[in-house]
Amino acid sequence: MSLKLVIGDKNYSSWSLRAALALDLTGEPYEEILERLYRPDSRARLLSHSPTGKVPVLLTEEGPVWDSLAIAEYLAERFPEAHLWPRGQYARALARSVCAEMHSGFVALRSHLSMDLARDQALTELPAEAQADIDRVCRLWADCRQRFGQDGAFLFGHASIADAFFAPVAARLRSYRVALPAEAAAYVETIYQWPAFRRWYQAALQEVQG
Ligand SMILES: N[C@@H](CCC(=O)N[C@@H](CS)C(=O)NCC(=O)O)C(=O)O
C-alpha cells in the first residue's frame, strides 16, 4: 500500500496544504483523498479516517498519523534521504522552532486572514493584532533567510518543512494584498513559484470555479 493523504478543500484547508507540501518534498508517490469540508456529512466522513475528525491525516500501512506537525515529523523520519529538515543541527532546531510557533500561534493572522487561495482583495481594515502577527512573520522569515538561506530562495536555502508550514501564510499575505518589506515579498514570490505549491494553487482555483 502506498501512503494516502486525506485533505480538505484545497482553497481553504491550510493545514492540509502544509502536509501535502511536506509529502511532496519526499518525492514518494501517494494517493490523495479529498474530503469536502463545511458540508452536512463532512464530520462523519472525516471521522471515518481519523479519530480527530480533522484533516490532514496520513494513512500509513500501520495506521493513521494525524496533525500536520506529526505528519511532517513522520515523513522526515521515514524518508531521511529527502532531508525534509535542514541539515545543520541548529538550523534544524530553528526550523522546528518556527514551525512550532506557526502551529501553536499567529491566532489573529489565522482568524482575520483565513486561507482563501482564490481571493485577491485587501481587508477594509487590517486589525492591529493581525498586523503584529504579520510583523513577527516577516522578522522570522528574515532571520531564517539571513542565517541559513544562502543556498537558495527558501527559508533555509532548499525547500524544507519550514516552507511547507509558512506557504499558507505567504498565500494569505498575497490574497489579502498585505504590504510587505521587499525581502518578505520576495519570499512570497518564491512560494508562488514552488512547483508543488503551484499545482495545489491551480487545483484550488478550479475547485472554487466548480
Ligand atoms: N492542528 C491540526 C489542525 C487541523 C485542522 O484544524 N484542520 C481543519 C481544516 S484546515 C479541519 O479539519 N476542520 C474540520 C473540522 O474541524 O470539522 C493540524 O495541524 O493538522
Outline the structure in words.
By secondary structure, the chain is an alpha+beta fold. The chain is 55% helix and 9% strand. Helix 1 (14-26) links the parallel strand 1 (3-7) and strand 2. The chain starts with a strand and ends with a helix. The model has no long low-confidence stretch (mean pLDDT 97). Glutathione binds at residues 8, 13-16, 37, 43, 53-56, 67-69, 103.
Q: Supply Rg.
A: 17 Å
Poorly predicted parts: none
Beta-strand proportion = 5-15%
What's the end-to-end separation, in Å? 31 Å
Tally of extended strands?
4
Structural class: alpha+beta
Per DSSP, the total helix count is 9
Characterize the main sheet: 4 strands, mixed
| Secondary-structure element string | EHEHEEHHHHHHH
Could you say which small molecules are bound to this protein? Answer: glutathione
Instruction: For the largest sheet, list the strands in their spatial order.
Output: 2-1-3-4
Shape: globular
The portion of residues assigned to helices is 40-55%
Round the mean pLDDT to the nearest integer and report it. Answer: 97
Based on the structure, what is the oligomeric state of the protein chains? single chain
